[in-house]
Design brief:
seven-stranded mixed sheet; Rossmann fold; alpha/beta; 349 residues; 16 strands; Quinone Oxidoreductase, Chain A, domain 1; six-stranded parallel sheet; 13 helices; globular
Length: 349
């Protein structure tokens, strides 16, 4: 079968790889669509495991079912989360599902950016969302990344009426902007250097925008917010410099939520006394768990979340290099969806 194989940020290849063979407790899925994640451009993280089949945001149709699998049939339309949850571990019982060692051990085989992938018995127990006939496969690919947004918003301590500032308005930032009101935000302010992304942010639900390349972001924020900084600031850029900027935009008693990791060798120096005296809380959320994804699915089903707001480009598998270049440039694109069997395969059962 064909698969998109990552070597480095400038070398993505479509190669022939072995089609997975399932065991009796596994499922084989025909990949109809798979989202290209911004995290896949973090070369410092991925190159250590290259070459690797890309993709962890897939949706498709069940092709084969192991004879011991119950509850699923050939032809079912599904989304699959990339990792499986162990609900009974110490960390999971405390609510940290995605930090359990078994979560990191589980994988899609060989990945999501290929014509077929198989999922384990552990995935079948906790990581599948059944898609109704009306739910497009392309839009289903946002369930994992914007599931991370749901998880982040749950940890951000938003109080009813709070002012929320989102620093970095790429695909993930757009998700925070779009859904912050659902968690009680009274005002959402988008902050980015790109006028394109700021325009998209207004369509996603932002009440106002700030371009730090054209104005002092702190002064602009105070002008928009009755002389105060924001109650909650969400940083979506994998950079210590941006995280520090976001921290300085938090008002006393507020929260900084860090949504993206900085490179491992970057160090953030700050004064703990400042955080203590201002009563600033810092939160993080690594990946999306099954509860986040299910809750996002319900929001979409109810019409409160529009996944199409985040998708800007669609490609066949042979367009993966172009899609990746769009991702790295980050100019006038947010999310690309890849269709391993062709774009015309955006079908319903």
């Amino acid at each position: 079968m064909k698969a998109a194989v990552y070597y480095n940020n400038k070398d993505i290849r479509v190669e022939d790889v072995s089609k997975p063979v399932i065991n009796d407790d596994e499922i084989l899925v025909k990949t109809i669509a798979c989202g290209l994640c911004g995290g896949e451009a973090m070369e410092w993280y991925h190159i250590q495991r290259a070459p690797k089949v890309m993709g962890h945001e897939p949706a498709g149709i069940i092709e084969e079912v192991g004879r011991h699998v119950q509850g699923y049939s050939v032809g079912d339309r599904i989304f699959v989360n990339h990792h499986a949850i162990n609900v009974s571990s110490h960390l999971s019982i405390r609510g940290h599902y995605t930090k359990d060692h078994e979560y990191h051990r589980s994988r899609l085989d060989p990945g999501g950016m290929c014509e077929y992938f198989k999922i384990s018995a552990d995935h079948i127990r906790t990581s599948i969302i059944r898609l109704p006939d009306s739910f497009p496969f392309g839009e289903a690919t946002i369930l994992e990344p914007w599931g991370c947004v749901i998880g982040g918003l749950k940890k951000s301590n938003i109080q009813p009426g709070d002012t929320v500032a989102v620093v970095g308005c790429g695909f993930m930032g757009q998700g925070f902007i779009h859904m912050a009101h659902l968690f009680g935000a009274g005002k959402v302010i988008a902050c980015d250097l790109s006028e394109y992304r700021l325009e998209r942010a207004l369509k996603a639900g932002a009440n106002a925008t700030i371009n730090p390349g054209k104005e002092d972001p702190y002064e602009a924020l105070r002008n928009l917010n009755e002389g105060r900084e924001a109650d909650v600031v969400i940083s979506t850029v994998p950079s210590v410099k941006v995280i520090e900027q976001a921290y300085n935009m938090v008002y006393a008693g507020g929260t900084l939520h860090i949504n993206a990791p900085s490179p491992v060798d970057e160090i953030w120096e700050f004064k703990p006394n400042d955080m203590y005296t201002k009563e600033i809380t810092i939160t993080t959320k690594y990946s999306a768990d099954h509860t986040d994804i299910y809750q996002l699915f319900e929001f979409i089903q109810s019409g409160k979340v529009d996944p199409s707001l985040g998708i800007t480009h669609r490609f066949g598998l042979d367009g993966i290099q172009e899609a990746f270049e769009l991702l790295v440039k980050g100019e006038e694109s947010l999310k690309s969806v890849i269709y391993p069997h062709g774009i015309d395969k955006e079908i319903r059962k």
